[in-house]
C-alpha cells in the first residue's frame, strides 16, 4: 500500500463545487427566518420517495438506487424555523430578491457573465434530504475566472439554490432529518477540473472563500460553507466527495481518493488478467446459509445475536427493520480470490467497497456489515471450510456473507454483484462521504443530468442589466487586490487573509477612510487586538462599526489614547451602546493629571523591586509598570519614561 | 406522441423573429456565443406563451435551463436537432383470477404521469400498462381496466361532464366491475362526489374518487399512495357508496374514506386537505387494510341494481352572503334566468334585511332559494330569530346541515326532475346520501386549535 503518489504521473484532476450560504433575513422560497437553528422539534412527518420516470422511460441511476433502499423518511419540524413550504405542503413563493441580488453580486466577484433570465430547475434527491424530492436551483452566472497562482481558475457556473435538511440519524430503513436549515439560500460555485494537487485544492477553496466573503453578504461560521470535491485520475472517473467542511481536509481527501482510484484501476487490471473483462463476465451465486450458521460457531450470524442487536439499538419493525425473516446469505464470486483483500485507501480494502454498497443500499448496517473469505474471523476457520463446502467454493473463489432481514440480504447480494461488475471498469461514478482521516465511504451513485427538470411552480426571472451594472459598480475590491494594497502598507499576508475571511477588512477600510487611521495600525488592531479581546471573552462583535470609527477619530485627536486601547475596548464591550468619547470620559482618559510629574518623582523615590539586582534598567521597568497604571491613556508612556530616566540618572 | 406543428412553439415577437432569422427552431441543438464571449451549448426549448418575447430558453448539457436575451446573442450555430418524443413505456398489466376487477375512469387530472426531463412537461400515465410502469403495486390489488372519459381540468368539470360520468359509472357496474375509481383533480372533487351521490344511487360496489395534491411527477407525490388506497377501497372495500379517498395526515400513513356528500377541500395545498364536515369519515385505508370508523354505511352487495339518474338543470348558483350585500345581486341572478339559488348565509342562516324584498321577488318569480350556512359546520336554524322566520315566510328553504356545495349540486340535479315548488322542497329536504343528517356527533366538529398546550402535546406526539 503506497501512501505517497506522484499526482502528475497519475493524471490527477480536481474540480470544486463550493457551497456558501448567503446572509439573508429569510429563506429562498418562503418567508421563514434564515440562519435559525433548533435542537427541538414540535412536529414530525413521515414520507417516502418514489422515483419518477425520466425521458426515455428509465430511472436516473441515483433515483433507482435510492428507491431500492426503501427508506422511511422522517422530518423533524419546529414552527419557528419551518412552515408548510418546507413540509412540501405549500408551493414555493416567488424567489427571495435579496438572495438573488447577493448571488448576482457573488457572480460578479467571481468574474462571471450574468445570465439574462434565471430559470429555476428541480434537481432530484431521493435520499429525503429535501422533502419535495428535489432541490430548487438556478444558474445565475457562467464563464467566470479568478487569478490563481500564476494562472487563472475557471468558474464554470454559479447557481443559487436552497439548502437541504440536516441529517439527524440514518439507521436501517429509517433516516431522520431536521428541517431548520432546509430552504436557506446558498450559492454553489463550480470550478473547472483544473486543480492538479491537494495543495492546489486547499488553496483554491480558501481563495473562493475569500472572494465570497469580501462582500460581507455571506454567512460565516460552522456549516455556512461546504464543498463537494470532484476527483479523477487518468483512466478513472469522476468521484464526488460530498460536504467537505474544511479546506485542509479536502487536501487529505483528494490524496486518499487519488490513491483509491489508482488501486481500483489495479484491481481492474487484475480482474481483466483473470478473464473478467466486463460486467458480462462476472458471475455470482447466492446461497441461503441461514441453517448452516444457526448453531454457531459464529455468534454474529445467529438470529439471537441479531435480535439482541436490534433491541439494544432500539430498532422497530416497520421503521428501521426491513421485511422478511432473519436470513444469512452467502455470495460466491468465482475468480475473485484475493481481490477483496486488495488495498484501496489507507487502512481499507476492496471489501469496504462492497460493504459501502450493502450498508447504504441494502441498509444492512450491523457492524461489520459483511464477512468475507479473505478476512474471516480468527479462530473460525472450520466454519469457513463448511461454508466453502456448502457453496461449492473453490480456492479461486471469494465468498461474502451478509445477514439480516431477508429482503435486505437479497438486495445486498445483488448489490455485491453489481459492485464487482463495476470493478471490471475500474472506478464507478459515485458520491462519497468524507471522514476526518482522509478516507471516504460510499454515499450514492453519482447522479446524471437526467435528474434535472424545470420547476413548473416558479416563473423565469429576467435580470435587469442596469441593476446588474449598479451592483458591479458597488463591488468591493477583490481579495488579491486588497492583499497587494495591505502588503504595501506592511500588513502581513496572514493577517490580511484573516481580515478578509472574517469580514474585518471592510471595517479596516472604514477606519482608514472615515477616521483617517493608518492602514497598518487599523489592520493590526482589528486582526490582533480585537481577536485577542474576543478570545479573552469580550463581546467585541456586539460593538457597532460606527463606534470603532469614532474611536479611531479620537486616537487621531489624542494619540495618547492609543496606549489605553485595551481598556477602552473592554469598556465598550461591556456596554456596546456606549459612545467611545463617553467611554474615554468614564475611564478618565485623555487628560494628564496636573500633578503627574510629582507623583512619578515620588514613586521613583519610594518604590523598589522586590528583588533588586542593582541595575538601572530593572528599576526603570519596575517603575514604568507602576507609574503607567494610573497614567496609561492620559500621559504618553515616552514622557513618563523620560521623567523617570532623568530622575534615576540624577539619583545615580 | 406529439410532434409540435409550430417549429417556434411559444415564441412571440422579437424572439420569434430572431430565431427565424438565425434559422434555428425548437429542439435545435445549438452552440451560442453571447456578446460577453460566454458559450452556451444545449437544446432550444419551447417557451410558455405567457413569458416575455425577449429571451430564448436553452436546456444546457448539465440539465439546467437558462434564458438568453436575443440582443446578447453574438453567434448561434445549429449542431443538431433533438426533438422530444413523449411516449410512456408500457408494460403489460398482469392479471390474476383471484383479484377483483376495478375500472379506473379518467376525467383529466393526472394521478400518475411521466415527466419529460427536457421540457418539464408532465405526460399523464393512464392505460393499465402505463400505470403499471408507474405504480406496480396496483397489480397486487386488482385487475385494472381504464377508460378515459374526458380530459378537463377539475375547475372545468361541469354538468354535462357529471352526467356523462354518471352514465359511464352505470355502464361499468353493469359490465361487472367490482369497484370504480375516478381520477379527478382535487379542486372540485367534492362537487363531483356530491353530484354523483345523487346521479348514481344504490350502487352495488364502491365508487371512489381520488386525486393528488402534489403532482405525480414529483418524488414526494401523494398520487401513487392515494391511487393504491383508492384501488384497494374500490376492489376490496366494503363501502358501496360514492366516496373520496385522500390522505388522512400529510405523512405517508393512510387514506381516509369520506362520504361524497359530506366532504370538502379545506386547504389550498396540504396533502391532508379533504375533511369530512359535520360527521366523521367512513373509514381509514392503509397497507394493512381497512378500519371502519362509521359503521352506518351501505355495504357492498352484488345483487343490488344500480340506478343512474343523470338529469340536471344548470341554472343554479351559490350566493355567498356578506355584510353590505346589495339586493341588485339577487335581482340580477333572477333576471339572468337562474332557477335555483343556494345561499351560504351567516350564522344560523341569515342575510341582511335589505335583501328581503329581492328574495321575495325571486321566489315569486319561481326561483328556488335554499339556505345553508357559510360556517360549514352546524345546522340552519331559522326559527330562533325573527329575521329567520321572515325569510321562511319569503319561501326560502332551510337545508339543515347540508354543505353549500352539496346543496348546489343537489339543487341542479333536483331541478332536472321538476320545478314544482313543493316537490323541489320535498326532494331537497329528504336526504338521499347523508347530505342531511339528523344528528351532529360532538366529534363531527373538531378543528384543533394550535398553540393550546393539550393540542401541542397531541401534535408533537403524532405524525402530522
Find the biggest chain interface: A-B, 56 and 61 residues
Biggest sheet features of chain B: 8 strands, mixed
Which overall shape of chain A is indicated by the principal axes computed on the Cα atoms?
elongated
Mean pLDDT figure of chain B: 92
Work out the count of structural domains of chain A.
4
Main β-sheet of chain A, in a few words?
11 strands, mixed
**What number of domains of chain B?**
3
How many helical stretches of chain B? 11
What CATH architecture of the largest domain in chain B do you see?
3-Layer(aba) Sandwich
Q: How large is the count of helical segments of chain A?
A: 20
Helix content of chain A: 25-40%
CATH class label of the largest domain in chain B = Alpha Beta
Q: How do the strands and helices of this protein lay out in sequence?
A:
The complex is a heterodimer of chains A (about 650) and B (about 475).
Chain A: H1 7-10, E1 13-21, E2 43-47, H2 61-68, E3 72-77, H3 97-109, E4 113-114, E5 117-118, E6 121-124, E7 134-148, E8 151-162, E9 166-171, E10 174-178, E11 185-191, H4 198-213, E12 225-232, E13 239-244, H5 247-273, E14 285-288, H6 303-312, E15 326-333, H7 350-361, E16 371-372, H8 381-391, E17 398-405, H9 406-423, E18 430-434, E19 440-445, E20 452-454, E21 461-462, H10 465-473, H11 479-488, H12 493-502, H13 504-515, H14 519-535, H15 545-557, H16 565-574, H17 580-586, H18 596-606, H19 616-631, H20 637-651
Parallel strand pairs in A: 3-10, 13-18
Antiparallel strand pairs in A: 1-11, 1-12, 2-3, 4-7, 5-21, 6-7, 6-20, 7-8, 8-11, 9-10, 12-13, 14-15, 15-17, 16-17, 18-19
Chain B: H1 13-22, E1 28-34, E2 39-44, E3 55-60, E4 65-69, E5 73-81, E6 101-106, E7 113-115, E8 122-124, H2 128-134, E9 143-148, H3 159-174, E10 179-183, H4 189-199, E11 200-201, E12 207-210, H5 223-235, E13 242-247, E14 255-259, E15 263-265, E16 274-276, E17 283-286, E18 289-292, E19 307-308, E20 316-320, H6 327-335, E21 340-345, H7 356-364, E22 368-373, H8 386-393, E23 397-398, H9 404-415, H10 421-429, H11 453-461
Parallel strand pairs in B: 6-9, 6-10, 10-12, 12-13, 20-21, 21-22, 22-23
Antiparallel strand pairs in B: 1-2, 1-5, 2-3, 3-4, 7-8, 11-19, 13-14, 14-17, 15-16, 17-18
Amino acid at each position: 500500500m503506497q501512501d505517497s503518489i506522484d499526482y502528475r504521473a497519475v493524471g490527477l484532476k480536481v474540480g470544486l463545487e463550493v457551497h456558501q450560504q448567503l446572509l439573508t433575513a429569510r429563506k429562498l422560497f418562503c418567508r421563514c427566518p434564515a440562519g435559525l437553528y433548533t435542537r427541538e422539534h414540535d412536529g414530525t412527518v413521515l414520507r417516502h420517495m418514489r422515483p419518477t420516470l425520466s425521458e426515455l422511460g428509465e430511472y436516473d441511476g441515483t433515483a433507482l438506487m435510492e428507491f431500492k433502499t426503501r427508506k422511511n423518511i422522517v422530518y423533524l419540524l419546529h414552527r419557528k424555523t419551518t412552515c408548510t413550504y418546507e413540509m412540501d405542503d405549500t408551493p414555493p413563493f416567488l424567489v427571495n430578491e435579496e438572495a438573488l441580488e447577493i448571488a448576482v453580486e457573488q457572480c460578479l466577484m467571481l468574474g462571471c457573465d450574468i445570465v439574462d433570465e434565471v430559470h429555476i430547475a428541480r434537481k432530484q434527491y431521493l435520499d429525503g434530504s429535501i422533502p419535495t424530492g428535489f432541490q430548487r436551483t438556478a444558474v445565475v452566472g457562467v464563464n467566470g475566472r479568478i487569478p490563481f497562482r500564476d494562472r487563472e481558475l475557471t468558474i464554470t457556473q454559479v447557481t443559487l439554490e436552497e439548502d437541504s435538511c440536516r441529517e439527524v440519524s440514518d439507521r436501517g430503513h429509517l433516516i431522520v432529518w431536521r428541517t431548520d436549515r432546509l430552504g436557506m439560500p446558498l450559492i454553489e460555485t463550480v470550478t473547472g477540473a483544473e486543480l492538479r494537487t491537494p495543495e492546489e485544492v486547499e488553496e483554491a477553496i480558501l481563495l473562493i472563500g475569500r472572494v465570497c466573503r469580501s462582500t460581507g453578504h455571506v454567512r460565516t461560521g460552522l456549516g455556512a460553507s461546504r464543498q463537494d470535491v470532484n476527483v479523477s485520475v487518468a483512466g478513472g472517473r469522476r468521484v464526488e466527495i460530498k460536504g467537505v467542511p474544511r479546506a485542509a481536509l479536502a487536501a487529505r481527501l483528494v490524496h486518499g481518493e487519488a490513491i483509491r482510484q489508482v488501486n481500483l484501476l489495479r484491481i481492474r487490471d487484475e480482474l481483466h488478467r483473470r478473464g473478467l473483462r466486463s460486467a458480462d463476465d462476472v458471475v455470482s451465486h447466492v446461497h441461503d446459509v441461514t441453517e448452516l450458521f444457526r448453531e454457531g460457531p459464529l455468534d454474529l450470524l445467529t438470529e439471537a445475536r441479531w435480535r439482541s442487536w436490534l433491541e439494544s439499538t432500539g430498532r422497530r419493525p416497520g421503521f428501521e427493520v426491513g421485511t422478511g425473516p432473519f436470513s444469512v446469505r452467502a455470495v460466491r464470486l468465482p475468480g475473485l480470490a484475493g481481490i477483496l483483500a486488495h488495498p484501496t485507501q489507507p487502512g481499507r480494502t476492496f471489501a469496504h467497497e462492497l460493504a459501502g454498497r450493502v450498508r447504504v443500499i441494502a441498509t444492512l448496517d450491523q457492524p461489520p456489515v459483511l464477512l468475507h473469505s479473505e478476512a474471516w474471523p480468527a479462530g473460525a476457520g472450520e466454519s469457513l471450510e463448511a461454508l466453502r463446502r456448502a457453496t461449492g467454493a473453490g480456492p479461486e473463489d471469494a465468498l461474502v456473507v451478509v445477514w439480516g432481514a431477508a429482503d435486505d440480504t437479497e438486495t445486498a447480494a445483488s448489490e455485491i454483484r453489481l459492485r464487482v461488475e463495476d470493478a471490471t471498469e475500474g472506478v464507478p461514478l459515485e458520491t462519497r462521504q468524507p471522514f476526518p482521516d482522509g478516507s471516504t465511504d460510499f454515499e450514492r451513485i453519482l447522479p446524471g443530468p437526467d435528474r434535472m427538470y424545470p420547476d413548473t411552480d416558479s416563473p423565469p426571472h429576467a435580470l435587469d442589466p442596469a441593476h446588474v451594472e449598479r451592483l458591479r459598480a458597488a463591488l468591493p475590491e477583490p481579495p488579491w487586490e486588497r492583499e497587494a494594497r495591505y502588503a504595501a502598507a506592511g500588513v502581513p499576508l496572514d493577517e490580511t487573509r484573516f481580515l478578509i475571511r472574517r469580514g474585518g477588512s471592510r471595517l479596516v477600510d472604514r477606519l482608514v477612510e472615515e477616521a483617517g487611521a493608518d492602514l497598518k495600525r487599523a489592520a493590526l488592531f482589528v486582526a490582533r487586538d480585537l481577536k485577542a479581546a474576543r478570545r479573552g471573552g469580550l463581546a467585541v462583535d456586539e460593538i457597532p462599526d460606527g463606534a470603532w470609527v469614532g474611536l479611531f477619530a479620537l486616537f487621531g485627536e489624542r494619540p495618547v489614547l492609543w496606549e489605553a486601547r485595551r481598556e477602552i475596548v473592554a469598556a465598550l464591550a461591556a456596554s456596546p451602546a456606549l459612545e467611545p468619547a463617553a467611554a474615554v470620559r468614564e475611564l478618565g482618559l485623555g487628560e494628564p493629571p496636573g500633578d503627574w510629574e510629582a507623583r512619578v518623582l515620588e514613586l521613583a523615590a519610594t518604590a523598589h523591586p522586590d528583588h533588586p539586582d542593582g541595575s538601572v534598567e530593572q528599576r526603570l521597568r519596575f517603575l514604568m509598570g507602576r507609574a503607567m497604571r494610573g497614567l496609561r491613556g492620559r500621559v504618553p508612556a515616552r514622557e513618563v519614561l523620560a521623567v523617570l530616566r532623568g530622575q534615576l540618572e540624577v539619583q545615580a | 406522441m406529439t410532434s409540435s406543428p409550430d417549429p417556434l412553439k411559444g415564441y412571440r415577437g422579437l424572439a420569434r423573429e430572431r430565431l427565424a432569422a438565425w434559422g434555428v427552431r425548437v429542439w435545435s441543438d445549438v452552440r451560442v456565443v453571447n456578446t460577453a464571449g460566454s458559450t452556451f451549448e444545449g437544446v432550444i426549448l419551447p417557451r410558455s406563451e405567457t413569458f416575455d418575447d425577449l429571451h430564448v430558453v436553452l436546456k444546457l448539457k448539465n440539465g439546467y435551463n437558462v434564458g438568453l436575451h436575443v440582443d446578447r446573442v453574438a453567434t448561434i450555430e445549429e449542431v443538431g436537432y433533438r426533438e422530444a418524443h413523449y411516449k410512456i413505456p408500457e408494460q403489460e398489466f398482469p392479471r390474476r383470477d383471484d383479484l377483483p376487477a376495478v375500472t379506473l375512469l379518467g376525467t383529466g387530472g393526472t394521478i400518475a404521469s411521466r415527466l419529460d426531463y427536457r421540457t418539464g412537461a408532465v405526460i399523464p400515465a393512464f392505460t393499465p400498462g402505463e400505470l403499471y410502469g408507474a405504480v406496480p403495486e396496483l397489480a397486487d390489488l386488482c385487475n385494472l381496466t381504464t377508460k378515459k372519459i374526458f380530459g378537463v381540468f377539475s375547475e372545468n368539470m361541469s354538468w354535462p361532464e357529471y352526467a356523462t360520468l354518471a352514465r359511464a359509472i352505470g355502464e361499468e357496474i353493469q359490465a361487472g366491475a367490482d369497484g370504480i375509481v375516478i381520477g379527478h383533480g382535487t379542486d372540485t372533487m367534492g362537487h363531483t362526489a356530491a353530484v354523483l351521490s345523487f346521479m348514481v344511487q344504490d350502487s352495488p360496489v364502491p365508487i371512489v374518487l381520488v386525486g393528488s395534491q402534489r403532482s405525480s411527477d414529483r418524488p414526494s407525490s401523494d398520487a401513487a399512495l392515494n391511487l393504491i388506497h383508492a384501488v384497494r377501497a374500490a376492489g376490496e372495500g366494503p363501502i358501496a357508496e360514492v366516496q373520496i379517498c385522500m390522505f388522512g395526515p400529510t405523512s405517508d400513513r393512510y387514506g381516509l374514506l369520506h362520504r361524497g356528500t359530506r366532504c370538502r377541500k379545506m386547504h389550498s395545498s396540504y396533502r391532508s386537505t379533504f375533511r369530512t364536515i359535520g360527521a366523521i369519515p367512513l373509514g381509514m385505508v392503509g397497507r394493512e387494510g381497512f378500519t371502519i370508523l362509521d359503521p352506518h354505511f351501505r355495504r357492498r352487495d352484488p345483487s343490488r341494481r344500480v340506478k343512474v339518474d343523470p338529469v340536471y338543470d344548470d341554472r343554479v348558483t351559490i350566493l355567498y352572503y356578506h355584510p353590505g350585500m346589495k339586493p341588485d345581486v339577487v335581482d340580477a341572478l333572477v333576471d339572468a334566468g337562474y332557477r335555483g339559488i343556494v345561499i351560504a348565509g351567516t350564522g344560523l342562516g341569515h342575510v341582511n334585511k335589505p335583501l328581503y324584498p329581492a328574495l321575495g321577488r325571486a321566489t315569486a318569480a319561481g326561483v328556488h332559494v335554499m339556505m345553508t350556512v357559510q360556517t360549514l359546520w352546524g345546522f340552519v336554524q331559522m326559527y330562533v330569530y325573527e329575521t329567520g322566520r321572515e325569510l321562511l315566510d319569503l319561501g326560502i328553504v332551510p337545508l339543515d346541515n347540508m354543505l353549500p356545495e352539496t346543496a348546489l349540486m343537489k339543487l341542479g340535479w333536483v331541478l332536472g326532475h321538476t320545478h314544482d315548488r313543493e316537490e323541489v322542497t320535498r326532494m331537497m329536504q329528504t336526504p338521499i346520501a347523508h347530505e342531511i343528517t339528523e344528528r351532529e356527533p360532538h366529534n363531527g366538529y373538531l378543528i384543533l386549535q394550535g398553540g393550546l398546550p393539550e393540542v401541542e402535546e397531541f401534535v408533537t406526539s403524532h405524525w402530522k
